[in-house]
Amino acid sequence: MASIPIYQALRRVAEVASSRTRVMTLDQKTRYLQIAFNYDLQMVKRILPTIGASERILIEAGTPFIKREGSAGIHGIREMWDGHLVADLKTVDGALGEVDEVRRAGATAATVLGSSPPEALDLFIARCTHLGMSSMIDMLGAQDPLRVLMQLKTPPDVVVLHLGRDEEATRGKVIQYRHVNRVRSKFDVLISAAGGVDLKEARSAIFNGANIVVANLVRPGDPWTGISTETDVAEMAQESLTTIE
Q: Could you list the residue range(s) of the whole structural domain that residue 35 is in?
């Protein structure tokens, strides 16, 4: 009798291990919605199970979430989500160790800051490739994303054009879509648009050539734009997917 639950437990371990090592690629012709969780695991447990599985949805363990919950938080998301899982590390150094850690926790993609040394960027991209992950360079604060890419041995899978949280309230600051064509003229990469994204900005991002739009989940009263945590997030996600098709 005891062998049945033991067998089931071992099978579950094997399933989880398999999901963590699965290679999940992003398609140039597909338009994706990336939903960023930036608070705590309790919120993830409340909202994530309501979001229907879709190959066009990427779930993000945001930087504040990772700082609060660590790799255990990423593992917690993986237990609830079988699709793409982005670890928004914003790595600046120690690339190999950070990529290894989030891969073990179940991430299928991770981010590095474009302002990092070229050595760190090269190591980050190479490690992601080796582990079957999508490499994403976040160009937050980078004045010339193309110049960053020109220094690299190999381009990343995704370039993130990012308007930071602290920049959202600055009048006149917007996501710099002018870089899309410049980057694409030299590199075959996906473009992600992040920061202050609502339905209107999502449409703008796709119109300007983005493959991925990143929407933050935002608590009422917080000063950022995104999807309110008090709305029907699953319904908003479906509306967003329809908007960016």
A: 3-243
Q: What is the DSSP string of the chain?
A: -THHHHHHHHHHHHHHHHHHH------TT--EEEEEE-S-HHHHHHHGGGSPP-TTEEEEE-HHHHHHHHHHHHHHHHHH--S-EEEEEEE-S-HHHHHHHHHHHT-SEEEEETTS-HHHHHHHHHHHHHTT-EEEEE-TT-S-HHHHHHT-SS--SEEEEE--GGGTTSTT----THHHHHHHTT---EEEEESS--HHHHHHHHHTT-SEEEEEEE-TT-S--SEETTS-HHHHHHHHHHHT-
Whichever domain contains 189, its CATH number is: 3.20.20.70
Q: Which pTM does this prediction carry?
A: 0.89
Q: Express each pLDDT in 160-208 by its tens digit.
A: 999 988 888 888 788 999 999 999 999 999 999 999 899 999 999 999 9
Gyration radius from the chain CA atoms:
18
Return d(Cα 60, Cα 66) in angstroms, integer.
10
Number of domains, the chain? 1
